[in-house]
Amino acid sequence: MVQLQARTILTTLLTASVVTNYWSARPRVGKILKFMALVEAESAQDIALETEEYDEKKSNFDFSKEDVTIIITTNLIPTSPGIMVVNETIRSLPKFLHGLSETAPLIIAVDGLDKKTRMRESNADERYTQYVKNLRQEFHRPYETVLPQTERINLIGNLQEAIAQVQTEFVYIIQHDMPFLKDVNHTALIKTFREHPDTIKMVRFNYIRRHADKFNNCDEKEINFEANGIQLTKHHVWSDK
User: Fold this and answer.
1) Which end of the chain is more exposed for a tag (fewer CB within 10 A), N or C?
2) Which DSSP symbol is given to 176?
3) Confidence band for 90, pLDDT divided at 50, 70 and 90
4) What residues contact residue 116 under an 8 Å CB cut-off, 6+ apart?
């Protein structure tokens, strides 16, 4: 979770490899190229329509009642256009994040395809287009949106596009294949952020057991900060894992 006190904060975090004072909480080429150009044009139109739809959603949804936005980063994977992987992750949120609003804004940021992927897999664009359609059919409520890209912009670019849409004070950044497996007191976490704004800027939820080293400086046995029943260990690197 990140507190967005200023838009420049997360941009700085995303472009830096090391930062301080983070915390961790336990057919053929010719045909392919023509098809690529056609699909890119159609994708651009789809994104424009999606942006208009998202703006309309925002005008009808009261973001002032929400404290956090959930950003799920995703891309084309072997199981696409099926959405079972990202669906499992999203379903884990209300189960394990206690106190999370039922209408917490959800942004699914879908990274696009690069030329290598299109050359390697002739039906990549078809699978990608269907993947986006499947996501939109499943996540279509006023507080849910799917933001696809016409080309590959990688994790940082994908996150920046999503962050530009956020209107809440806090944001969860979650990869599509990393569901929550343990209980987290979301309410207490928000309270701790607000009570200690100069100390806590980001909280990571480790997906593996980590040990202290010169890069992570994180050992689950080492507690550096405790408040509202939340125990945190200091970290020195940014990560979306």
Assistant:
1) C
2) T
3) very high
4) none
Task: Specify the higher pLDDT residue, 166 or 224.
Answer: 166
Residue of 169, 141, 155, 68 lying closest to 110 (CA atoms): 155
* Whether the model pTM is above 0.85: no
Structure token digits, residue 122: 């002739």
Residue 4, token pair as written in the block: 């967005």
pLDDT over threshold 50, residue 121: yes
The residue with tokens 């507690």 is: 223
Q: Which residue has the higher pLDDT, 8 or 225?
A: 225
Burial annotation 89-99 (CB, 10 A radius, 16+ → b, else e): bbeebeebbee
**pLDDT grade for 192, boundaries at 50, 70 and 90:** very high
Q: Per residue in 9-30, pLDDT tens?
A: 444 444 433 333 344 444 433 4
Q: Where are the beta strands (DSSP E) in the chain?
A: 2-3, 22-25, 68-74, 97-98, 106-110, 144-148, 170-175, 184-185, 203-205, 225-227, 230-235
And the tokens for 27? 């057919």
Q: Shortest CA distance to 1 belongs to which of 140, 100, 142, 138?
A: 100
Q: Parallel, antiparallel, or unpaired for β 106-110 and 2-3?
A: unpaired
Beta bridge partners of 203: 23
Backbone angles phi, psi at 107, to 5 degrees: -120, 120
φ/ψ bin of 229: left (φ > 0), alpha (ψ from -120 to 50), beta (otherwise):
left
Q: Where are the domains of the chain?
A: 15-26+31-235
Residue 67 has phi, psi (to 5 degrees) of -100, -20
* Chain center to CA of 5: 18
